[in-house]
Amino acid sequence: MSEPFTLELVQGVALLTLDVPEASVNVLSTPIMRQLDKLIEQLEGMSGLTAVAIHSAKKSGFVAGADISEIEGVEDPEIGADLARNGQRIFTRLERLKVPVVAALHGHCMGGGTELALACHYRIAADNLTMALPETRLGILPGFGGTQRLPRLIPLNQALDMILSGRTYRAPKALSCGLIDQRVPMDKLKDAAIDLARQVAANPSQVLSKRRARSGGLLNALAKTPLGCKLVISMARKQLLRTTGGNYPAPLKALKVIGQTLGLSLDRGLDIEAQALGELIVSRESKNLIHIYHLTQRHRKSLRLGEVHLPKQAAILGAGVMGSGIAQLIAEKGIPVILRDLNSDVVEKGLAHIRAALTPKYLKRGLGQDAVDKVMGRITGTTSLDNFQAVELVIEAVVENLEIKKKVLQEIEPHLNDKAIFATNTSALSVSAMQQVGNRPSIVGGLHFFNPVSRMPLVEIIRGKETTRETLDSLLAFADKLGKTPITVADRPGFLVNRLLMVYLNEAGLLAEEGFDWLDLDHQIKKFGLPMGPFRLIDEVGIDVAAEVGTTLCNAFSYLPESRLMKEASSSGLLGKKGKKGFYTYPKQGKPAPNPAIDSTLNLSRSSKPDTEQLHRMLYLMVNEAARCLEEEVVDSPYDVDTGMVFVIGFPPFQGGLCRWADNVGNEIIAKELDQLAEQYGERFIPQGVIARKKTFYT
Description:
The chain contains 31 helices and 22 strands. By secondary structure, the chain is α/β, with parallel strands linked by helices.
């Protein structure tokens, strides 16, 4: 096997090339770090060396981070701290070379990769750079020196933003804040890095003065004073508590470490950082957040990329909000797409909506109007069915009506080539029923995007009775190409996400009918860790939509008694957020506020304060329905359930997902309480599947 690092001398500059064998990305595993350590020792002994430049031979980027499998296996805080200390020692050794070290960055530069770059004296990047310290999203903190070197390099407020949020910095922002020193086109990166290394070896003052100018200014100068630092740290803590509710220990611990070590020596700061990482790495929150990370990657193991046909041209039928959103996403990924609607005005409105969404997004990234025009150039708006012969994937996004969707399939089928796939974006209607009207049912499947398309990371791939494996594989590969996390779901009412969601929302409605304060129920759920309570979520979904889906599911599953609330609210003209009024009101400016008229409109007494039992009625019922879905083979595994719950409903990531949370609570405990609830409230609470067997979801 070839070595991960190669070293060559280019006119006195040592060029280190990182290319981990048989891997698509560079990961800083223990063996790779050991090899880097040996190389640094070699560099220390080289005579005539003027500078060092480090770059990656991977197309994907510089370094994707540390080896997560090494992190998740740690159960002893001291072992975790020692892992950090070893990485710190190697990077500090690099930093203390007697010649300047330049990092040449491109593509993904994440976690340990960013910390490696920070240990270098200078950084030059290609235009496609995306740089981040995402460790707090895994329940830990940057442990190879990130909490110490970043605040020394860029303004404190921006260092905190990057570390505490895990936010990604693209090349323009990285340059403007002083994180990188130069930005060049990708094809010039290697040569430019060598040139920069020679330049700073001869005279570093010009590069350093430009860096200081970028991170200068009165506000940044004030932030460097003891009082300014204290104020910035205090404000960051208040913001963290407001946004996380104190449920995520890692950002708070990282902030504490940075606050404690400002003004200390690097060596002392690194020691405090290592101890903090050791404490976090063994926490339940960290284990749960790493579980969530694996959910985002799990589908890739089953993708047969290279073997599966990936559609190279697409078409969207329906140019409304959902259709135009899907078209935008496809075009941004470099795939030509037709946006078709019966009404030319709707087509023009859809195209205008896409342009309006792209312009501020691309300007924020430092890209100009040319980038927007390039994406728009991939979208063809039309009312015609001509030119569909080259289309390899059609996604219908018309009104949620089975007969209309069947008609659309029948209309488009004669215009497609033999290999084209037809996917419906239905949220609840039967894919198998649609297959009955087509001549090629095997190429019909579901591709259920969630709204808003640009922000929701999950896609449900629906397998109808006659959908072939080949069709499913193509849809999975296409969803992955779009940057989405797909789960494959059986063609059952509500599929997975909407079924679990509506069980939860319906139970919340029943609780409100019984007299429990709906606003307190919202507060309880938020305190548990969801981004919003059930009634705020009903408003977000749309009261009319929630009412329709709720009725459909309660009719499909006889054990579910239907709450009257959503139907009555919809009949009263309340639409939720899109209509500016529902359980809450939505002013043009300011935050949503409880609707003062909702209690009288729906005859709600709000006479009882909910407690733990009511919280469990909502959450344990979802757990029980998840067990039922697994028994019915709606999805294959609890991983799929947790993926859907976290990425659509917002089940708290620090809890690890619905099924993992249930396992942590204990399914014997849940089963016992469900039995008690079933005696009082009916068969929907009778334990199902693994809950009835008092087993865990994950073995």
